[in-house]
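Batch manifest, entry 17 of 40.
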Amino acid sequence: MLFKMPKIAFYASIVIGALLFVPTVYLAVVNWSPKVFQPLLSVVFGGVVTAFIALSFILRQTTISERFPVYVVLDQQTSLPTIVPGERPHSAFDSMSRRANLEEFDPGKFKQREVIFKSPDEKFEFYAQLIQYELVVQMYGILRYVEGISQQTSATKPTIVSVEVFDLKRPKRFTKIEGQDLIKALSHNRFLQPSEKRFWEFQEAWLPLPYKTTLSIPDSRSLILERPGYYKVTLKIDPVGAGQGSPLHLVDKFGNSRVETLGFIVTTEAVFEKFTSGSPYSEESMDWVRSLFNRLKIEFFLGTT
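Output type: structure tokens
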């Protein structure tokens, strides 16, 4: 009953306002003169100012943010990610490892990639681009599909395959970001190989984003979703450092392997404009953003634990 009271008050105020509107207009027309309209205009102006001030206090700029670490574990001899047997297929960890290791030299033909980094900055730049590309790939999977498939393999037991259904807050109206637009946005990313371009060229390879939202990739370490006047989402990739060995939560997977770990922090932040933050579109988009940020965190970090 408590949840219905604001709606009752709202509709009651509309009815009362409508009932008073007609006699007010009648009285103003019948008695229209400088003596009447000057104070009347002052009252109307004051009411508009009061309403604007009230809205300014009620509406608030809203910021939604999330941060999570991303670890890239490299073989010390090759400086390429180690592919872990039994890792969940198509997880961000597995996908990045395979994408970094394989280089397409002819259409549909791949070879083991060879890399030589001249400096730590060059190495971090290489893997920042890898994470950036994987963010787009994971967003495609998150926004287009509601199910995730995982499997557990064992040398002595049958493979266990499970399906997980995710609850993503989806907008009622959305804009399609076509694959061709993604190809243009990712044109400077080294991991956009010919086979990847062919995938994004498929008619069904598109991203559903909230209505009138655009996607841009200004540099190798960020990604922006935006609808001017409503909100701006920034996904930013920052290198943290490198160290010998694997992260504690991955020790069981790598054992005593000679590996090096690169650490990154991915910051996902959405800023909703003050004067449109109370609109149904913004509220719906806020729910969508929270769901997306949470799923990205699961796929990139929690999914490796």
